[in-house]
Amino acid sequence: MPPNCHVSPDKANAARAAAEHILQSLGAALSERPSATLAVSGGSTPKLMFEAMAAAEFGWRRVHLFWADERCVPPDHPDSNFGMTRRAWLDRVALPAEQVHRIEGEREPQQAAADYEADIRRFFKLEGDALPRFDVVHLGMGPDSHTASLFPGEDLIDNRQGIAASVYAASKQSYRVTLLPGVLLNAAETVFLVSGADKAGPLRHVFQEPLDATLRPVQLFARQSKNVHWFLDSEAAEHLR
């Protein structure tokens, strides 16, 4: 079993455990600074986590929220990561609108990526080649071992200088905007939430096969991120030693 791996009996309990951990980490950051930063991922798995976060008592007014990636669709589209997050969580908490830094997926992909990078640069007051440092980045993993919108074979997996970029996910036949590896690796803490039997084989490969981030992008962050916590259900963890 990899270090910092928390296995729950089912996906609902894994989601609640991940939510509790993220809130503890944000609370620790807020004890030291006026505000904290969180970047989240979309997809179906985090919905239960967002609902648990919405039900918790927490001072959201000091948190700035970002996204690890977004589909290039309008915010009210069923595939929008922002839209799912809003329905499951944001509509139910007092997080000021100006602290929600969404990716404008309704725009042309390259422009959406450029605008998102500009927003991040302004918020973090970045100069030159400096990269942002999020307090917590939440990531997931697809059955193909992609994470954020970094898919197998994507050239951007080797990018350590950029902040955000548009990508075309051929396997999904869709354009997306994603944070780049240098930003994700620079996070103070990374929290993975992974559930389902279809993730068991890929997770075993992530931890037990030689590093090949081009083939298995999530390996990059499993092996090289500084502070990683894994929240798994029993089905996803089935093949881990």
Question: Care to describe what's here?
Answer:
This protein is α/β, with parallel strands linked by helices and 241 residues long. The protein has one domain (5-231): Rossmann fold (3-Layer(aba) Sandwich). It contains seven helices and nine strands. Strand 6 and strand 7 form a beta hairpin. The longest helix is centred in the N-terminal third of the chain and has 20 residues, at 11-30.
CATH topology: Rossmann fold
- Per DSSP, the total helix count is 7
Specify the helix fraction band. 25-40%
**Biggest sheet strand line-up:** 1-9-8-5-2-3
Uncertain stretches of 5 or more adjacent residues: none
Spell the H/E element sequence.
EHEHEEHHEEEHEHHE
The largest sheet is:
6 strands, parallel
Which class best fits the helix and strand makeup?
A: alpha/beta
Overall CATH architecture: 3-Layer(aba) Sandwich
Mean pLDDT: 95
Shape: globular
Number of domains: 1
Number of beta strands? 9
* Rg computed from alpha carbons, rounded to a whole number of angstroms: 17 Å
Beta-strand residue fraction: 15-25%
